[in-house]
């Protein structure tokens, strides 16, 4: 048993009147002790559920990120005219609405905007559809690549994926606790703003509950992150909803202030509904139709999201031109070509064949 960790459990688990928040340094130490197995299973379980009930602070999230920074993997900087976009998506996946972020990533990379994603397999508590399964359905198998080879693919294509079971195995044990407890611990909140990239980055993350946005602001400010986008997205993802106004917080020149953006789908001629999630095979088939430039509900989602992210990354001057650019990229085959390039790069690198980079970041 760790007496140090017991003190952390006592602080977060003492109730409304006598409980205390952890300092940033304490949160970092507690996270490292859990990842390294220096606390007992009883202590880890007690801490995770007590911290869940207490709710984390932005300072605690910053400390957890410090621990991930110290112990976790990072893709190294690539030459790019723009900061890499790091998409923070819930690791336990999607169950209700069709995700679009892999298409968004390909679309951005097709115009020289590098994108980093991260995640694992089907995970608790939701056991929803994870990104890794969608990529595999599209012909891109990230699971076999060690970090050095993922780095090579990232340099060649502008798309990188940190596959946590292989690249960050220390967090694997924590997933068993999540399953047994049946609730997401604050670590799941922190992962949404984790940045496994060592270069200049633009953090884009989803959230569900408004207090989470405020926690993110504090944590990112403490970590010195000045470029971020916070999206009240579908199932906590970065995907903009079509059935309601998209509520988005944009980083501004004043660190503690958000620029607030409200995007109304019908004002841009989009139907106000989200495509339900069917089987993985159906989703992949729908994505392939989008990549062929064919109309449909998922194409509407792709244009809505693609337009926003092309504007937000500075490639297009406004939403309407972003939507038009997204349509052009999809119907011209440019995004499909990027997928083919990515699939080939992953396959060749896995076979120790290193093609010359075709990626240009100065589009």
Automatic annotation (TrEMBL):
Q: Which organism is it from?
A: Komarekiella delphini-convector SJRDD-AB1
Q: Name one Pfam family in it.
A: Glycos_trans_3N
Q: Which InterPro entries match?
A: Anthranilate_Pribosyl_Tfrase, Glycosyl_Trfase_fam3, Glycosyl_Trfase_fam3_N_dom, Glycosyl_Trfase_fam3_N_dom_sf, Nuc_phospho_transferase
Q: Does the keyword Mitochondrion apply?
A: no
- Determine the domain of life of the protein's source: Bacteria
Q: What is this protein called?
A: Anthranilate phosphoribosyltransferase family protein
Task: Kindly state which keywords UniProt assigns to this record, in alphabetical order.
Answer: Amino-acid biosynthesis, Aromatic amino acid biosynthesis, Glycosyltransferase, Transferase
Any idea where the Glycosyl transferase family 3 N-terminal domain is?
7-70
This protein's GO cellular component annotations are: cytosol
Q: GO terms for molecular function, please? A: anthranilate phosphoribosyltransferase activity
Report the residue ranges that make up the Glycosyl transferase family domain in this protein.
97-334
Name the PANTHER family for this protein.
ANTHRANILATE PHOSPHORIBOSYLTRANSFERASE, SLL1634 PROTEIN
């Amino acid at each position: 048993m760790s007496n140090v960790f017991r003190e952390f459990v006592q602080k977060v688990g003492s109730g409304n009147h006598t409980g205390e928040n952890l300092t940033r340094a304490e949160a970092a130490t507690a996270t490292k002790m859990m990842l390294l197995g220096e606390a007992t299973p009883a202590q880890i379980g007690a801490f995770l559920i007590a911290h869940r009930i207490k709710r984390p602070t932005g300072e605690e999230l910053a400390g957890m990120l410090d621990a991930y920074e110290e112990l976790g993997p990072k893709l190294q900087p690539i030459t790019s005219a723009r900061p890499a976009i790091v998409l923070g998506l819930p690791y336990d996946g999607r169950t209700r609405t069709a995700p679009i972020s892999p298409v968004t990533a390909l679309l951005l990379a097709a115009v020289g905007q590098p994108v980093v994603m991260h995640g694992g397999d089907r995970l608790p508590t939701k056991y929803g559809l994870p990104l890794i399964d969608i990529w595999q359905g599209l012909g891109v198998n990230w699971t076999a690549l060690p970090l050095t080879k993922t780095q090579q693919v990232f340099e060649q294509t502008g798309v990188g994926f940190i596959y946590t079971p292989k690249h960050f195995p220390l967090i694997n044990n924590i997933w068993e606790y999540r399953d047994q407890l049946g609730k997401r611990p604050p670590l799941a909140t922190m992962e949404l703003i984790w940045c496994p990239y060592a270069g200049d980055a633009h953090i884009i993350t989803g959230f569900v509950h408004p207090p989470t946005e405020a926690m993110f602001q504090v944590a990112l400010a403490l970590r010195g992150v000045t470029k971020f986008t916070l999206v009240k997205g579908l199932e906590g993802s970065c995907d903009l909803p079509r059935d309601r106004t998209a509520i988005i917080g944009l980083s501004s020149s004043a660190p503690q202030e958000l620029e607030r953006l409200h995007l109304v789908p019908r004002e841009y001629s989009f139907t106000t509904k989200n495509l339900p999630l069917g089987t993985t095979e159906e989703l992949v088939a729908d994505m392939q139709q989008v990549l062929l430039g064919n109309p449909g509900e998922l194409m509407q989602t792709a244009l809505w999201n693609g337009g926003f992210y092309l504007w937000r990354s500075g490639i297009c001057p406004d939403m309407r031109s972003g939507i038009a650019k997204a349509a052009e990229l999809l119907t011209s085959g440019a995004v499909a070509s990027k997928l083919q390039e990515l699939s080939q790069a992953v396959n060749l690198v896995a076979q120790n064949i290193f093609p010359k980079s075709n990626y240009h970041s100065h589009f």
